[in-house]
Design goal:
Number of helices: 3
Order of helices and strands: HEEHEHEEE
Helix content: 10-25%
Strand content: 25-35%
Number of strands: 6
């Protein structure tokens, strides 16, 4: 049920943005895959890790727009991490969900399909999209393609 709601919400947001923004979202394949929610240790607000697909070569402006909407949709959460893979088949949550980050300990095959990670934290005043031109396995953090999301 969550997948249907998220997919519909993203579709509505993309439709509304088409009039305002001149990005070609229909050529990108952004789709909701899964979500994990846990209570934050400091404030008790929710922390989210959300998995999406974005296709093999997502348009960076479209990706930034999607991240901006994700940030806007989740104003009550303490921390959000949206993770974009080129295929739902390889979309996996990180092993270390406490820090919500991927490392060499995670599934190599999944990291080879990782395209971007968007992180937002109220507590740490962090708001950044890291895009991997090749993939998350070959191009380790910090990404040379890093953007602040407005």
């Amino acid at each position: 049920m969550n997948k249907i709601i998220y997919s519909l919400l993203l579709l509505i947001l993309f439709s509304l943005s088409a009039c305002k923004e001149r990005f070609d979202l229909k050529n990108d394949s952004f789709k909701y895959v899964d979500i994990k929610r846990r209570k934050g240790l400091v404030t008790g607000e929710d922390n989210l890790i959300i998995l999406y697909t974005c296709g093999a070569n997502p348009n960076i402006d479209s990706l930034k727009l999607v991240c901006s909407y994700i940030k806007g949709m989740h104003t009550n959460e303490q921390q959000i991490q949206a993770v974009f893979f080129d295929s739902a088949k390889f979309a996996k949550f990180p092993k270390n969900e406490i820090v919500a980050d991927y490392s060499q300990d995670d599934d190599e095959e999944a990291l080879k399909h990782l395209k971007a990670i968007y992180g937002f934290s109220k507590f740490y005043n962090f708001n950044r999209l890291n895009y991997f031109e090749k993939n998350g396995w070959e191009q380790r953090s910090p990404s040379p393609y890093s953007y602040e999301i407005k």
